[in-house]
Amino acid sequence: MTAPAVHANCVIVGTVGLLIRGGAGSGKTSLADIVIEAARAKGNLGRLVADDYTHVAAVDGRLEAQAPQAIEGRMEVRGFGVVEAPFARYAQIHLVIDLTPAETIERLPEQPLTQACLDGVQLPVLVCPQNDPAHCLRLIRWALRTLFPKGPDYI
Predict the structure, then answer these.
(1) Angle, to 10 degrees, between the axis of helix 28-41 and the axis of helix 133-147?
(2) Cα separations (Å) of 10 from 26, 65, 84, 105, 109?
(3) pLDDT tens across 32-54, in order?
C-alpha cells in the first residue's frame, strides 16, 4: 500500500478495524491503548495497526489501513517513550472515530453516527471527546452495538 499517510491511529478489536483521527495531543494513542486493552480483557483480539500516521487506501470497495514501515509495531507512550507493541499489518476499517473538543459535541445528537467518504469509501463516523478515553470507550462500544447488532461485544 503506497497511499499517503493520514494523521490517525488504527487498531483492530475482534474483527473490527477502527481509524482514530485527531490532532496532535488529542489522545489518539491513549484511546488506542485503552481500546486494545479493553478487547483483551474480554478475551478478544486487540492489536495496534498504526500509531499517529496510517496509510489508507480503497481496495475492492473497502478501506484498508497499514502502518508506515518506519513506525510499524511501535507506539509512543507520552511520558514513557516509544514502545514495541503487538501489531497487525493490515486492517479493514469499519468505523472512523474523530476526536474533537468536548464542548463542540452535541449532548443528544439526532444521528449518533455520521458518514465520511475516505478514498471513495463511505464509512460511519463517531465523534468523541478528545483526551477522555473512558468516555470514548463507552461511545465506541455503543457505536459497535449499533453497527453490528448481532455481533459480539469486543470491548
Answers:
(1) 60
(2) 15, 7, 15, 22, 25
(3) 999 999 999 999 999 999 999 99
